[in-house]
Specification:
Elements lengths: L2 E6 L9 H17 L4 E4 L13 H9 L6 E8 L5 H14 L4 E6 L6 H7 L6 H14 L20 E5 L2 H10 L3 E4 L7 H11 L11 E9 L3 H19 L20 H10 L3 E4 L1 H15 L3 E5 L5 H18 L1
Parallel strand pairs: 1-2, 1-9, 2-3, 3-4, 4-5, 5-6, 6-7, 7-8, 7-9
Protein name: Luciferase family oxidoreductase, FMN-dependent, PP_0088 family
GO molecular function: oxidoreductase activity, acting on paired donors, with incorporation or reduction of molecular oxygen
Pfam family, one: Bac_luciferase
Length: 329
């Protein structure tokens, strides 16, 4: 059966405080915990007033402290931005504090713009360097760490690693390392099938994983009626255009759909040609789309994110999604 998880960027909307955004993220995590979602991941992005999960491990710690069973993870740690040794120390500390509930997703991108990357990056991070860094983390979290003169403390053996990707390069890496593979369908929808094919074909069993395991992330904005779904879609389009306009630095819009500006032909073209894998519609539409996605990509796990700002509607989006996945996939 397909598993279901949540990915959260911790979006902040105009008119709310930072604490409001963090508390919404926590409330959603508690909902996921009570309703048996597989895992709940936080992203790493920088220099964005609209996405405030930049100190990812701090937000993870906050959510771990107020949930009971669900796995909480980084989706992910952008390795070029961090000291590898400190990554091992911090996540081992979290894992010891919170009963082996930590996932560690690893990425090679900076998670930000070029100017900010210069402040974060130690140097250019090639695929080979990423592979070596991942192998070192595997070593830090294994019995073989005892062979090292310098060891990260506290120690742990229980943190599963995941390779994150938006291209086929990451598919080769995940397969060769024998790690689970999480692909961002909302970023590179045209490469999903090819990336999964490469990963499955090149997968080498490892101590962590005996057979390939794929996670597919996508955006969902689902409502119970066509009218409510249309309102969510209008809001989602405005946020998508805001994300596309990288020069605009502001919190996400909180628009009334009735007063939303009419889209220009250029904006409609941008949405049509650049929007990633997403489901925007009512329950029956969402069910049909998920069945198509499941049949085409055969992911072991769906990881959904959403930019719905009203909490009740956000929760209902995931409640509907959980019902579809549990009963139709």
């Amino acid at each position: 059966m397909t598993k279901l998880s949540i990915l959260n960027l911790v979006p902040k909307y105009i008119g709310e405080s930072y604490k409001d955004a963090y508390d919404r993220a926590l409330k959603l995590a508690q909902f996921a915990d009570k309703n048996n979602f597989q895992r709940y991941w936080l992203t790493e992005h920088h220099n964005s007033p609209a996405v405030i999960s930049s100190a990812t491990e701090v937000v993870i710690s906050y959510i771990l402290a107020h949930t009971k069973n669900i796995r909480i993870g980084a989706g992910g740690v952008m390795l070029p931005n961090h000291s590898l040794f400190q990554v091992a120390e911090r996540y081992a500390c979290l894992n010891n504090l919170y009963k082996d509930r930590i996932d560690l997703g690893l990425g090679r991108a900076p998670g930000t713009d070029k100017d900010t990357a210069r402040l974060l990056y130690k140097k250019n991070f090639s695929p080979r360097e990423f592979i070596n860094a991942t192998k070192m983390l595997k070593l830090y979290f294994s019995e073989d760490v005892e062979k090292l003169d310098v060891k990260p403390y506290p120690q742990t053996r229980e943190i599963p690693l995941y390779i994150l990707g938006t291209s086929t390069i990451s598919a080769h890496i995940a397969g060769k390392l024998g790690l689970p593979y999480a692909f961002a369908g909302q970023v590179s929808p045209d490469l999903i099938e090819k990336a999964f094919d490469i990963y499955r074909a090149e997968f080498i069993p490892s101590r962590q994983l005996e057979k390939p395991y794929t996670i597919l992330s996508l955006i969902t904005n689902i409502a119970r009626t066509k009218e409510d779904a249309k309102d969510l879609s209008i809001k989602a389009e405005q946020i998508f255009l805001q994300i596309m306009n990288v020069k605009e630095k502001s919190e996400f819009y909180n628009l009334d759909p009735e007063n939303a500006p009419e889209l220009t032909s250029i904006e409609r073209f941008l949405i049509k040609t650049n929007r990633g894998l997403s489901i925007n519609g009512d329950v029956e539409y969402a069910r049909k789309e998920l069945l198509k996605i499941n049949e085409k990509y055969k992911a072991d796990e769906i990881m959904a994110l959403s930019f719905i700002n009203e909490y009740e509607k956000l929760e209902d989006n995931f409640r509907i999604l959980k019902d579809i996945v549990d009963n139709s996939l």
